[in-house]
Specification:
Helix content: 40-55%
Number of domains: 1
Strand content: 15-25%
Order of helices and strands: EHHE
Structural class: alpha+beta
Radius of gyration: 15 Å
Number of strands: 2
Strand order of the largest sheet: 1-2
Length: about 50
């Protein structure tokens, strides 16, 4: 039997002005610490993760 498990996230996404500010901060962090992964994560607040 092949069972699949689905995972769900309940997140809050900031308004557009705040997203732009967060992206600028993340870009500075990425450049200062050579961490490219910081650029590819979406600005969000995860409230809960469940399956």
């Amino acid at each position: 039997m092949n069972e699949s498990i689905n995972e769900y996230l309940l997140v809050i996404q900031p308004h557009e002005d705040l997203i732009e500010k967060i992206i600028a901060i993340k870009k500075g962090f990425s450049e200062a610490y050579q961490c490219e992964q910081a650029l590819h994560l979406k600005p969000q607040i995860t409230l809960i993760k469940f399956s």
